[in-house]
């Protein structure tokens, strides 16, 4: 039973971890590993798991258990031993940040809002469960009647002819009950799975929707693996716990109550003694529950962390391979997965102890029933059938209690998984995706102005990127921004796209404050961004370009590709526009990827083109062609170009030189060249003499 419980509560995590960890565990390296990462200088040995003393697992995880007077007193190691904190600043985990889910509360109201549409199914499921429970309560009594008939004929050989006659009714009733029990079991399981799947689907889509709506700053902090884990594992956990709690929990509680009533009817005396111990079990269960919940939450967090590492390593496999970091990544993952395993072992240990205690108590109950029941039978105060019914009812109570202790793990997991899911579902972004002024297309001129803009990234509030930045980009003009790396050029583009809001000052489009405009409309219709590191989706080239305008025809897609000088290389592929570009566009060269991205941006025919190093990945020859294409595309649009290469910017109407978030020079190419200042230094330093002062 313990094994079953353990299996049930930790199946997913253990399944996942076991397969990864077993080779390492056989080498007995897991605990040594922890030791290696312990803070050597620490004098407080309790900060690390000490593997050298040969202590048993129980000692290592520091669980103290004492049973006194039928009450379990449970003390989880969490308070006694702090798991060794590895020197994470020495590995790439140093940047690991997870939103603290300590304050994540299970949102009952929200949960009810998911359940409410399925109230009828829920009621049907509850009714089915109760009927099964009531039948389970009746069955022992009916069985008692059958036993009484059997007992009667075992002593009365002469009257055996009437046996079948007497047996007929109780046996028939019992058969009917068995059939009804099976039918309603099927019914409530089916109902519950219907509700569970529907609720899980709604939660999953709501969570995904909420994640997609979060501010870009949220993604600066979170790791993909963490988010994916909440979308998959946590919702799965929550769903199975919900189903188990409703079916198992409700049935078990009803059966306990019903059977307890049966017991009182059969023998109040025996029942009184049996039930004396129950409150202490409930008290112990509640106490242990609160302790284990914390451990469960920690374990789930840890698994999330391990998943995030695996996710990052797998999606960056080329970098991992290029730096021959496979072993280090493996080690990093193993360490985090091992920590998760330790937490889960602790959880399993606690649950196991509880179950073991419950079993001991219940078996004691059976023995004392037999003891007392036998005595009452011998003094004719109880019939054989009554004793049988009593025993069966106590067995039902025993099974129900065992079920509750099994459920106990589910409740803990379900609540903490649910809290984590609701935490993100309820998270409100600062910036809404929709809502605000939408300008008529024909009125858009594309005049952009930055007025006294001050900005620092939310993750680094102390580092000012722009200080009172002012810039006017007149309608239909091409403005180039140059400046050395890290000066805030891409930040200007990010602010225009409203990936972030300014800390001070305003940005306007045709005189309208950007904050007053509908952000989705702005991004989808006015701005066309070709970013520094364009990323494609793992689908066909056709669909990637069409991403810029989902209702575009194949011809329009082809037109945009021609404009971006991409048509010829696409036609060169055996599958042409249906070529799959691989995850994030990995199966295309840098220049090809860039041109597909340009086509994607041009397809939506934006009024304002934002080119952030758009041609940096192209060779000189393709750059020329794309440059011509972009110049062609720039006609009638406002263009903001960020580029390092002279060729891309020298025809700009105005060139702005940015230095440490401030404009230091401004003018045409010729003017700035003659000025021999920053611009000159940026572009000509290597070819001519340095500026004279
Ligand atoms: N998401 C972010 N969170 C925090 N800081 C950031 C973020 N993105 C950029 N920064 C910081 O802001 C500063 C300006 O970055 P930005 O990307 O605008 O530079 P850039 O001028 O485009 O440089 P490059 O020419 O190398 O592309 C840098 O110091 C950078 O480290
Ligand atoms: Mg940049």
TrEMBL record:
Q: Name one Pfam family in it.
A: ABC_tran
Looking at the UniProt entry, the stretches that span the membrane are 120-139, 171-193, 248-266, 272-290
Localization, per the record, is: Mitochondrion inner membrane
A single BP term in Gene Ontology:
potassium ion transport
Can you tell which superkingdom this protein's organism belongs to? Answer: Eukaryota
Q: Name one GO cellular component term.
A: mitochondrial inner membrane
Membrane topology category: Multi-pass membrane protein
Q: Where is the ABC transmembrane type-1 domain?
A: 123-413
Query: In this protein, which residues make up the domain named ABC transporter?
Result: 448-685
Keywords attached to this Swiss-Prot or TrEMBL record, sorted alphabetically, are: ATP-binding, Ion transport, Membrane, Mitochondrion, Mitochondrion inner membrane, Nucleotide-binding, Potassium, Potassium transport, Transit peptide, Transmembrane, Transmembrane helix, Transport
The molecular function terms in GO held by this entry are: ABC-type oligopeptide transporter activity; ATP binding; ATP hydrolysis activity
Q: Which Gene3D superfamilies match?
A: ABC transporter type 1, transmembrane domain, P-loop containing nucleotide triphosphate hydrolases
Cited PANTHER family: ATP-DEPENDENT PERMEASE MDL1, MITOCHONDRIAL, MITOCHONDRIAL POTASSIUM CHANNEL ATP-BINDING SUBUNIT
Q: Which family does it belong to?
A: Belongs to the ABC transporter superfamily. ABCB family. Multidrug resistance exporter (TC 3.A.1.201) subfamily.
Please give the name of this protein.
Mitochondrial potassium channel ATP-binding subunit
Q: Which organism is it from?
A: Agrilus planipennis (Emerald ash borer)
